[in-house]
Amino acid sequence: MPTTVLPRTAREVRLVARPDGLPAPRHFTVTRTPLPEPGPGQVLVRNEHFLVFPGLRTLIGGETDGLPLPLLQPGDTLFGPAVGEVLAAPADGPLRPGDRVAHLAGWRDHALLPATEVSPLDPALPTAVAHLAQGSAAYGALTRLAPVRAGDVVLVTGAAGAVGTLAGQIARLLGAARILGSTGSPHKADRLVRELGYDEVLLRGPEHPPFADRLRAAAPDGIDVVLDTVGGEQLSAALEVARQGARVAVVGTLAGQMAAEGDGGTAPVEIDTFRLVVRGLSLRGYAGTDHPDVQAEWRERFGGWLRSGAIRFPYSTVEGIDGAVRALPELIAGRHFGAVVVRL
Question: How many domains, in total, are found in the chain?
């Protein structure tokens, strides 16, 4: 272990109480806690960035049936993907102070972890924060479950989110001819077209005509591929407009996770199964654990695309551990464009 003075405390974001409905900043607090001296086989990391992901709403709400992640109880520290700098590491291990690493102990400024839970950053990606991009699921779905073919018309629901902002670009790079998206914000719709290459973005909400009608007008000949991050009315509409043999991949359930009612663990949707049969549609949910080869392939291609300028990684930054208490509520409220990252 190094002889330099190591921090003796860490600041963490903890859940104060389980919300009745959507979480607000008052449901979280920043706590200073003792940080033990690293023991054998442990790595101390100074976190630099961590990701805010919508699945935390489900874990906080208590709906964890079928999820590989633990329920968050009041008093627990939040967690999630993070990148940072090694401050101390076992002398007999591969890591050294100054190395940049990734792990799942975000939502704190310092993390003491078993060395087995810390990974060196992949040199395929040009920046540390790029390791927090949530494009792996979109890439896996668009190459495995609903493969994009040259000339396809592709719809991405929730296009302004962490997955959607990458999904449209990925579909284009895989050969799609026309990319449609959906969002609830005119400003975000403009950015998706102007900055990320979407051909048309449909605004959803009660003040607009039915989503299915607007989707038919935008894709009169039908849709070949759907990358759905939302569920609900948008998934139903996509199935109505899907072309013969269309492929539909569900990678998220924001309609349930962002709803004020419920606990974020369900996302019911009405589906016309007759249409599934007569049009020969495929409808599948994407789970990364079913495709263990995708992550490495995605990082290699993502890194190449980033370096060449073929793709952008849009993310919004929340500053500091104190600002983190508002990060999840702001994400749920749709305040940000792209991924939401806390910078420490």
Answer: 2
